[in-house]
Design goal:
Number of helices: 14
Radius of gyration: 20 Å
Structural class: alpha/beta
Strand order of the largest sheet: 3-2-1-4-5-6-7
Helix content: 40-55%
Number of strands: 13
């Protein structure tokens, strides 16, 4: 029996990180169908029901150690776990789990992570010290590898891609049902917008007036709160300030249904990285609004779409950026296909590492 423990931002009702988790599970199942997986989750019961694998409470040291002692491998990732901008406590937590794994003599694979920003010098030194005790590191972009090397990480760093790019799931409720639940019954032209609050900056006016321009051009405008606890109020405020009709996608969508929704869209406008990633796979035009370097890094790597800096965002620039993205159309299919293949590489590496212990 191959046993693997997964550590990440799991069980927090964040659609992006849930997408990462489900994608990693699917990629591992493709390489190792019989593998026994355990998540370290903030909500173990919910994670068991959502992902169909075992889960333990990530905050209970005894449960975490127990899972590690039974494991052949710890996977740390994906997502942006090792950064000190949104949460310093979370950053320390993920390093601590890696340290626990090594104390339990369990090998560690860093899986498709986006590393940074790491602004504090002590945090950089601590990250390098811990990662130099891992067995394999894969990241999702060149900037992450450059940062790790700059910090003194000596373990070879492989550039892969975000795990969600490898997802191939199907099924779920029909897209007509998903849209109808939000009040959208005809959507020949659909724009999905995934904003997020960021550092107290109010962008409601820019979003609402810019999206009104698209709505007047015949597009249905749907707002998608990728992390409802953080994003729902902003999405509702944007919809409420629009003079044209807008819709809020309030459902609890598993990853296959998020893909179905994106496949119905002509354009994805997003601050949230994984809305852009899913949009790229689903052949949507993209307008990225970077609040974090990871958004810019993905847009540059996928080789398509438009980028609009938040500090430059006005109603006019948002509407103009949307039109420019629509004129460009979907990202280059060959580039997306290459990234899909790279996204599967960490799972193949995990299989090799597990077999090497047996």
């Amino acid at each position: 029996m191959m046993r693997i423990t997964l550590s990440g931002y799991y069980g927090f009702n964040n659609a992006g990180d849930d997408a990462v988790c489900e994608s990693i599970i699917a990629a591992l199942a493709k390489e190792m169908p019989a593998a026994d997986l355990t998540l370290l989750s903030n909500a173990p019961a919910d994670s068991r029901a959502r992902f169909g694998v075992d889960a333990v409470n990530r905050w209970q040291v005894r449960g975490v150690v127990g899972a590690l002692l039974k494991s052949d491998l710890l996977i740390s990732g994906g997502g942006s776990l090792l950064q000190d901008v949104t949460s310093k406590r979370g950053f320390i937590y993920y390093l601590a789990v890696i340290v626990l794994a090594r104390l339990c003599r369990v090998p560690v694979l860093v899986y498709g992570q986006g590393v940074g920003p790491l602004n504090d010098g002590l945090n950089r030194r601590l990250t390098a010290a811990v990662l130099n005790r891992t067995q394999a590191i894969t990241v999702r972009d060149r900037d992450s590898r450059h940062l790790l090397k700059e910090m003194g990480v000596r373990v070879p760093v492989l550039i892969a891609a975000d795990p969600v790019l490898a997802y191939e799931g199907t099924g779920g409720r029909p897209v007509r049902t998903l849209l109808a639940q939000a009040g959208i019954y005809e959507a020949d032209k659909l724009v999905i917008c995934a904003p997020r609050p960021w550092q107290g900056v109010d962008r409601v006016k820019a979003f609402s007036e810019g999206l009104d321009v698209l709505a007047r051009q015949g597009y249905k405008v749907a707002l998608l709160p990728m992390q409802p606890e953080a994003d729902m109020a902003l999405c509702q405020a944007i919809a409420g300030h629009m003079t044209e009709r807008a819709y809020v996608l309030e459902g609890d969508y598993p990853l296959n249904e998020l893909f179905s929704l994106m496949k119905a869209a002509d354009l994805v406008i997003a601050m949230r990285l994984h809305a852009l990633i899913i949009g790229a796979v689903c052949n949507c035009a993209l307008l990225g609004l970077p609040y974090d370097p990871k958004v810019t890094a993905f847009m540059q790597r996928v080789g398509g779409g438009e980028i609009l800096a938040l500090e430059d965002m006005t109603p006019a620039s948002l509407a103009d950026g949307a039109q420019a993205a629509l004129a460009k159309g979907p990202c280059a299919p060959k580039r997306v296909a290459t990234l899909k293949g790279l996204a599967q590489l960490p799972a193949a590496l995990a299989k090799k590492m597990v077999k090497g212990r047996q």
